[in-house]
Amino acid sequence: MGTTTPPRTLAEALRVRGDEALAGLLRARPDLLTPVPGDITQLATRAGTRASVVRALEHLDRFALQTAEALAVAPDPAPYDTLLRLLTGDGQDDGAHHDSTGAAITAALPGALATLREQALVWGEDERLHLVRTARELLAPSPQHPSPTGLGPTVAEATAGMSPGRLQEILTAAGLHATHDPVSAVAALTALFTDRTRMADLLDSAPVEALSVLDRLVWGPPYGEITPNPTPPVRWLRDRGLLLPVSARTVVLPREAALHLRAGRAHRVPEPLPPVVQSVADRDPQAVDRAAAGQAFLALSTVEDLLKLWNGGGPTVLRSGGLSVRELKRVASALDTTEPVAAFWVELAYATGLLAADGESDEHYGATPAYDDWLELPAAQRWTRLALAWLAATRTAGLVGGQDAKGRALSALGPELDRSTAPDVRRRVLALFAALPPGTAPDPATLLTRLRWERPLRGGSRGEVHPAQESASNTADLRSRIALWTVNEAELLGITGRGALSSQARALLPPVPGSTGTPADRSATPAEAAAALLAPLLPEPLDHVLLQADLTAVAPGPLERPLADVLHVLADVESKGGATVYRFTPGSVRRALDAGQSASDLHAFLARHSRTPVPQPLTYLIDDVARRHGHLRIGAASSYVRCDDESVLNEILADKRSAVLRLRRLAPTVLASQTDPASLLDGLRDLGYAPAAESAEGDVLITRAGARRTPPRTAPVPVPEGPPVPDDTLLGAAVRAIRAGDTAATVVRKEPAAESGAPSGTLPRTSAADTLATVQAAAMTGSTLWIGYVNAEGAASQRVIAPVRVEGGFVTAYDHTADEVRTYPLHRITGVAELAED
Relative to the CA of 234, which of 268, 387, 485, 504 has its CA 20 to 30 Å away? Predict the structure, then answer.
């Protein structure tokens, strides 16, 4: 009773785990929870499926993956010492370097093995380590998919099917005793290749050219092509079994021989320790925070400028979805940036829910109602909205301008930009930033190296492709590109400043164990903590500008929203920077008058918000435009122009440029046109006039700037990379359900005497009277029963129940399988048996 039997299967190994260990497995591999397994056996079966094992291998770090690869080429089962030797080698090749690497491997191997055990990729005691069969098949070598370790098949595998006569020839050439038993022959050859002394003597007698051939194959791929008449060095190797035939023109270096040449190592470069992320600069953390805050403020201004650009109506949605190249160029020109950066801002606004298509028959992009709500928030909170949306977004702006798998161009806001790996890569990159001391800017090259170690994507030590890595190379390249885009986008957004992570961004991220950053207030949410850190660093909005005699206004800082909104209509932005320069033009003043402002309103506005006297040229400009504004009236005839001054209409008719408007005089003060009112309005403005639109009643129509919004739209939902990580409540319920189902499946029961001859494990068949009597007795004694049950759909199942009440042809019982109280019709219970006593 004091001994424990080693598990014989993965299911047995999982069955003896505690609830916390089972919950850890389900947390590490959430795909096993969909749906919740019925029992431990079903959980083990699902954990061994190809799709699930491939996903688990994808999430291993490089050394854990190297450990799994070493087990794939080790005997099954493999003792811990054998696994350790495959990773460290026998120490006969590197001296001091081997000693240091071996010590690191010895220290890291228990942790890597614990990870593989936790994820149910390895099971068994240290003396009998089993790699799950599916993982072994995925990582094992084959001619089509060489092992990531670069090792070939064993001697026994490579000689399977070889004629006994050929085996005797190899034994004789290798100096071994001949035997007519193929099994003994293979064993003798294997013993030769694994004996370091005898193998060294054999290689000492080899031609130099033969050793060169082995050098090319030893670290893989172990396969080579030969001609029908091979060269003497190749023939020497083939005759002694150092190259074994795979096909008529292909030979392979057997695994045992390769391990001898490698000094016993499965990997050329074991990597037990994660690469260190090096720094390129150590900056003042406060300077980093200030630089990031300035960039954050610029990000807010850029997003506002983008959506103001489309306030009156955005560009048309392409038929295939997305933004045209021409429109993206216009956005880049308006924002004074490059097209890739413009695509980033467009995608960021879309991911935050500030931008969407209006959904009409002739779809256009535009700001959403959420944009107006966003504008009302304090600047720091607006920034956290952008940052959190960027962190979670699966849409990848860096892909814009590239091509999809079918060679079609990828456009901004298009449907093919979602990459489920993007959020994970962003958070891993920023986590590496956060692990460095505040103010430290990491080297991007070492950052990528560390990321590849953390998530090698089944690439092994040297990056060969094997069955578990059929699509990994493209994914690995995409991950590297996303990581570099993350570094650049983080700087644009103000997550980092001068290449280092800012304090406000650090507050948005989960705490990093061992980091030296300033801890955030854990009583607040991450967004609140980040906003509190950022708010003091942002410039205070100003309520004034400086008017100049050259018809410009200088805003020495950010402006309060009412002032900024009116000034954006009244003047055109000429330049940005530390101070924004606005220029007043006849067109901008006319725009303000069209929006419902009067000349007196504009004079009062400028006098109220200018720290300098209003220049006389600006006063004259406003009065001159206002005097002519609305002098011409345009309505629908198709359209018409009316004016009390006949000379103005004569001037328009005499102007050759007005020919495209197709005007004709209806009356001394009225002209008619075949164009629509809007086109006529724009055409006369292009000719230098200041017409105003009027309603059917003759009243001037006032158009409000920036009033067009899409219907309410939600932000795009990120595309998940896989099943979400379950929370503790779901994990606890799942573990209880699996335990209950396993109890029902493995419980020992008493066989009725009448059916003692029935096969073991079959459901006993009892009559209705016996079933009722047994259930009633169990309800009175509080005992547990094992039943067979057929539901209304005809599906049969086995359950372990504890009857509570029996009445009206129904039994109410606690169902251990479902972990809940249920009611069962007695006529659907096919059989019942008592549980055997322990």
Answer: 268
- What is the pLDDT at residue 700? 62
Of the candidates 3, 142, 139, the one whose C-alpha atom is nearest the C-alpha of residue 71 is 139
How many Cα atoms are found within 13 Å in the side-chain-facing hemisphere of 569? 22
Q: Give 334-359 as a 3 state SS string.
A: HHCCCHHHHHHHHHHHHHCCCEEECC
Q: Which two tokens stand for residue 418?
A: 């979602």
Residues contacting 538, CB < 8 A, separation 6+: 293, 296, 297, 379, 380
pLDDT attached to residue 92: 63
Q: Report the phi/psi class of residue 827: left, alpha or beta, with left for phi > 0 and alpha for psi in -120 to 50.
A: alpha
Of residues 649, 653, 837, the one with CA closest to residue 749: 837
Q: Read off the tokens for 218.
A: 């030893």
Buried b (16+ CB within 10 A) or exposed e, 658-668: beebebeeeee
Q: CA–CA separation, 369 vs 710, rounded Å?
A: 7
What is the C-alpha to C-alpha distance for residues 302 and 323, in angstroms, rounded to an integer?
18
Q: Identify the pLDDT of residue 681.
A: 84
* Pair 82, 130: CB distance under 8 Å: no
3-state secondary structure of 806: strand
The pLDDT, as a whole number, for residue 637 is 65
Radius of gyration (C-alpha) of the chain in whole angstroms: 39
Q: How far apart are CA 193 and CA 255, in angstroms?
A: 9
The pLDDT of residue 636 is: 61
What torsion, rounded to 10 degrees, do the Cα atoms 667, 671, 672, 674 define? 150
Nearest of 519, 307, 492, 526 to residue 390 by alpha carbon: 492
The alpha carbon of 244 is separated from its chain's Cα centroid by a whole number of angstroms, namely: 44
Token pair recorded at residue 135: 């993982």
Which residues neighbour 308 within 8 Å (Cβ) at sequence distance 6 or greater? Answer: 568, 706
* Pairwise CA distance, residues 798 & 554, whole Å: 81
Distance CA 519, CA 511 (A): 8
**Average pLDDT along the chain, 838 residues, taken 10 residues at a time:** 70 91 92 86 91 91 93 91 90 59 90 94 93 88 68 88 87 85 90 91 91 90 87 91 88 91 90 92 92 93 90 86 92 92 95 90 88 91 96 93 86 91 93 93 93 71 39 64 94 94 92 52 79 91 89 87 83 81 90 83 90 90 85 71 86 87 86 84 84 72 61 83 82 84 67 46 70 86 83 81 86 78 87 70
Q: How far apart are CA 600 and CA 608, in angstroms?
A: 12
DSSP-derived secondary structure for 99-122: HHHHHHHHHHHHHHHHHHHHTTSE
* Pairwise CA distance, residues 7 & 91, whole Å: 33
Q: Kindly report whether the global pTM for this prediction surpasses the value 0.85.
A: no
User: For residues 644 and 263, what is the distance between their CA atoms, to the nearest angstrom?
Assistant: 103
Q: Angle at which helices 19-28 and 96-118 pack, to 10 degrees?
A: 100
- Residue 198's alpha-carbon distances to 41, 154, 211, 238, 817, in angstroms, are 47, 18, 16, 18, 61
